[in-house]
Amino acid sequence: MPEELPEISKSTSFSLNIVRIFAMIGVVNLHTILVFVQRPDMFHSQLWLPLETFLTFSMPAVSLFFILSGYLTINKKRDIRENLQKTCWRIFFPLFIFILLNATVDWFGLYQGRQPLLYTVYQSFLKVMVSDLWFMVVLGGFYLFQPLWYLLAEKKAVFQYSILTLGIGSIVLHFFNNLAGSNISHASLTMVSSYLALFLFGGYVRQKEVKISLRSLLLLSIAFVLLKVLTDYCSIQVSYFANETASYLRTLNALLGTIVSATWHLFMGVILWELLMRIPWLKAVQNFKNSAKIVERIGKIAQLSLGVYLIHPLLISLRSWVFGFEYDFSGLNVYQYIFVSWTSIFLLSLGLSLLISKIPGLKRIIGISGK
């Protein structure tokens, strides 16, 4: 039997809620703002650099969700039946409902009713791993093996070496796939091994604290962000040079970009996790008069993170395909459009999640216990 872990303290619980909210906002940032960074006409604008830097902090959002899930589940003892029941209600039931909802939106917007609805549903199930719901499929797969992870966590040395092996293996696979110019999907062995390493890392840090100072974490996060922004900038810039001038620079930047890309999800995810968990958030909030209410409200918002993750792609599809609200046709400048787009998607997702959470018969579709 593994040694009993202490209960999660109020301070740690509050920090976990901050991680949830940070990751939730990060995912919405990527799906509403990233498109502007990738537009060729945005590269020469004054907005590209601040947006690229801002989004670089948002990119490890899904990595944080995997670490958080491992932190909360791996060290819990469950039998196979209990684990299957919890996984079905927590992961697969919401996944099934939102595949159906996404299919309905596609049928109305993308296909405009020109093909049978059932066939659109069938297509949605087939393409789930290239949709915004891929995270739920991978996480559900990890949850199904929770009793195995629990047994693995008992053997601390084996557990640690397993995480290192998965992490190093995924970096090596990612590096050579990038060199070969392969398109790495979320369902690939490369990415799944990376996500599993992060998931298991979450279980590991629940048992044992990683010894690294807050100052070192801050410096590492800044260094990684600057390196990512630099490689992205150079990869676009060298494309404007003549071949004979830029061949050496292209090769050098491609190699550096490959190294950054191969290590990004793992290293930046771990660094951001440790950084967010080390900052004394609860102590800072307790300096305010209404600190108890602030803590309670942040906890309630954090509880809606899965709902926001599931709902916001639906709203983006509705905005684009049903209402036709796109930047090129909106009549807004880029600052106005980003503000309106992000604010509307995030607040509507949060509001709908809150509404659903209040309805006992519906709240399971956003992963909230029906009890």
Automatic annotation (TrEMBL):
One of its GO terms (biological process) is enterobacterial common antigen biosynthetic process. It is a multi-pass membrane protein. Its main location: membrane. One of its GO terms (molecular function) is O-acetyltransferase activity. It is found in: Cell membrane. GO terms for cellular component: plasma membrane. Residues 15-357 form the Acyltransferase domain. Pfam families: Acyl_transf_3. PANTHER family: O-ACETYLTRANSFERASE WECH. This is Acyltransferase 3 domain-containing protein. It comes from bioreactor metagenome. The lineage of its organism: unclassified sequences, metagenomes, ecological metagenomes.
